[in-house]
Amino acid sequence: MAPAEPLTNTILYLDGVSVSFDGFRAINNLSLTLDKGEMRAIIGPNGAGKTTMMDLITGKTRPDKGDIYFDGAHDLTRYDEAEIANLGIGRKFQKPTVFECHTVEDNIALSLKGPRGAFRTIFDRRSASEPSRIDEILAIIRLTDRRDELAANLSHGQKQWLEIGMLLAQEPKLLLIDEPVAGMTDAETEETARLLRDIATRHSVIVVEHDMHFVRELGVKVTCLHEGSVLAEGSIDHVSQDPRVIEVYLGR
Ligand SMILES: Nc1ncnc2c1ncn2[C@@H]1O[C@H](COP(=O)(O)OP(=O)(O)OP(=O)(O)O)[C@@H](O)[C@H]1O
Ligand SMILES: [Mg+2]
After folding, report:
1. Which of 28, 100, 161, 184 is deepest in the core (most CB within 10 A)?
2. What CATH number did the domain enclosing 39 receive?
3. Ligand 2 centroid vs 241 CA: distance in angstroms?
4. Whose alpha carbon is nearest atom 5 of ligand 1?
């Protein structure tokens, strides 16, 4: 059933969502609301259902029951993956997937939203508005001075940033980012927190991470999932002091 209120300030609404795999309930009556323009950090132990939640939002997995609404009246359970991407939900998986044999700039150009084919983007003259959009994205992802470098030559952290830039080129309303700082250096991790804070000024973001130092740096509301439901929600201090969160997650 559609939410009773129009939820004009809500970008994402999950209510009573459950999904089982071979009788195992990976998501169990999960309810979560994300405001427009909000960035939310999701934490929780391995197997808590964090990635499965993203699979449900993006249409990769269908819920057995429950409601998922996006940006007003879009019932995401009725759309397929491509349609959900077109509605404005961009997803970044854990492993970076960039075009290694293209330059940083062309990776962004190839990803730009619009009626351009890949060939046209690379070989045609770019439209007047494109260079500035590319410049803007390169600045956000801290790769302006690497723009002519082959993506293959970037560090692991820089490849993650480039892939975030490729998502931004699609102009999503909501970005889902799964464990962005795994394998990054400490300096890259801290820069990633700043980068995501910059992005969150113009987009709604859900970021899943185990790195609690990074989550603290984000400075946003935190939701801790456990056994497919919300265990605790609030500020990082509130959540990290919750005895149940300490027991199932932080005290490991
Ligand atoms: N497509 C699937 N088929 C079967 N089981 C699945 C599927 N997707 C997820 N699961 C199971 O659901 C549970 C939740 O997994 P999920 O990957 O969502 O956890 P997570 O919170 O992302 O964990 P991690 O922190 O390790 O990434 C796990 O027990 C997992 O094995
Ligand atoms: Mg996961």
Report:
1. 161
2. 3.40.50.300
3. 23
4. 21
